[in-house]
Amino acid sequence: MPPRPPLPPFTQATAHQKVKLAQNLWNTKDPQKVAAAYTPTSIWRNRSHFFNGHKAITQFLSQKWAKEKNYILRKELFAFQGNKIAVQFWYEYQDALDAMKWKRCYGIEHWTFDQEGLMEKRMMSGNDIIIGEEGNGEGRWFDGVSPDGVDETVMPEGHF
Taking Cα atoms as reference points, which of 42, 61, 59 lies closest to residue 118? Predict the structure, then answer.
């Protein structure tokens, strides 16, 4: 697989760049494109799901985005060292399996990269909340925001 710059070891600038590249990639909601940013044997923990490899990643993401409609994500650099990056993230979506209620997920990810800049391990912890009365979406942060504008969204105090 071709290298995916920026490559480790990361600096403040290159770690931030890597986070924003991941944010933009995930906001495509294209499982094949997202899986290509990971090593062929990449290890994942996503909440209570444990799996590895491109096939499992693609299958997981396909199921995720079939459920999470109108998905929009923001990631921010939390910490970095060498070939590791930690991010905090927030995303909003309508839950197709729960009467299209609006929800927001808050979480942390820990990433480890190989020397070619591919992610070889992704550990994610996240918690969902319902947005607005009975999930009507009132109070959404990303209401009317395109993925290109997500970084300009002002995050409420205490959430960032």
Answer: 42
Q: Which runs of E-coded beta strand occur in the chain?
A: 38-46, 49-52, 68-81, 84-95, 101-113, 119-130
What is the tens place of the pLDDT at every residue in 6-52? Answer: 999 999 999 999 999 999 999 999 999 999 999 999 999 999 999 99
Q: Model pTM?
A: 0.96
Smallest Cα–Cα separation from 53: which of 36, 33, 29? 36
Model confidence over 111-150: pLDDT tens digits? 999 999 999 999 999 999 999 999 999 999 999 999 999 9
Q: Which of 83, 74, 76 is nearest to 11 (CA)?
A: 83
Q: In what order do the strands lie in the sheet with 68-81?
A: 49-52, 38-46, 119-130, 101-113, 84-95, 68-81
User: How many of the other CB atoms lie within 10 Å of CB of 8?
Assistant: 20
What per-residue string of b and e applies to 52-75 under the rule 16 or more CB within 10 Å gives b? bbbeebbebbeebbeebeebbbbb
55's tokens: 């096939």
8 A C-beta contact, residue 87 and residue 19: yes
